[in-house]
Amino acid sequence: MPTIQNNQSKSQSLADKVSQEIEAAILNHELAVGDRLPTEPNLMAQYNVGRSTIREAIKVLVNLGLIEVIQGKGTTVIHDTLPDPTISKALREAPAIEAYEARKALEISIVNLACLNRNATDLKALGYYLEIRAAAAKRHSIEAYRQADEKFHEAIIEAAHNSVIATIYEHFWQSFNDRFGKQFIELKFHSDQPIIHQNILKAIEQQDVHLAIQWRQIL
């Protein structure tokens, strides 16, 4: 990533320049999902800007859903695509109940396809992430729980083997998470019902569409 010089045009701030450079690196896969950004001092030196500029640029990237900042763990790339602006706008303006209904409708369709299209590799991944999720809940580790829960649901999407649905849901989830993320995960964490997820997995394994949908509707 090239150094940003201080002779910026009046129409564009230093923070905009920095955020756009990092955004381009993420979208071009120079920075991959899971990669950590350099530390704040390193970014300041790399772009020849002050601390406030870096913090403002990071805030922009967080709002775009591309990175996540975790206290004590640094800044990590969590997505390498931008959410669809139409979906993002709809979710920002919709009543919360409509957003949750839309999420449930999408996930019911995905569970349906997963029952029909899953293979042995998919089932192994689903079982693995469900075990990690349960272990995190027992340890009361909300961050490990969040990661395992997301991986479990991503594995269901993989099991559907439909690239169109996967892309639509990815954009939807980015925007949904931007609006409800923290409170949604904490709610799931404190009301965790592992039996429901285990039964969803069992239904997918048995390719029982009706049972899988029935259990998903309970969540």
Apparent shape:
elongated
Distance between the termini: 43 Å
- How would you sum up the major sheet? 2 strands, antiparallel
Helix content: over 70%
> How would you state the average pLDDT, rounded?
87
Q: What would you report as the Rg, rounded to the nearest angstrom?
A: 20 Å
Q: Helix and strand string, N-terminal first?
A: HHHEEHHHHHHH
Number of strands: 2
Structural class comes to: mainly alpha
Strand order of the largest sheet: 1-2
Task: For this entry, give a set of tags.
single chain, 219 residues, mainly alpha, two-stranded antiparallel sheet, 10 helices, 4% strand, elongated
In short:
The chain is 71% helix and 4% strand. It has helices at 14-27, 40-47, 51-63, 85-93, 96-117, 120-139, 142-160, 163-190, 194-205, 209-218, and strands at residues 67-70, 74-77.
Explain the overall architecture:
α9 packs antiparallel against α10 (209-218). The protein is built from 10 helices and 2 strands, in the order αααββααααααα. 71% of the residues lie in helices and 4% in strands. Strands 1-2 form a two-stranded antiparallel ribbon. The chain has 219 residues and is mostly helical. It is elongated, with a radius of gyration of 20 Å.
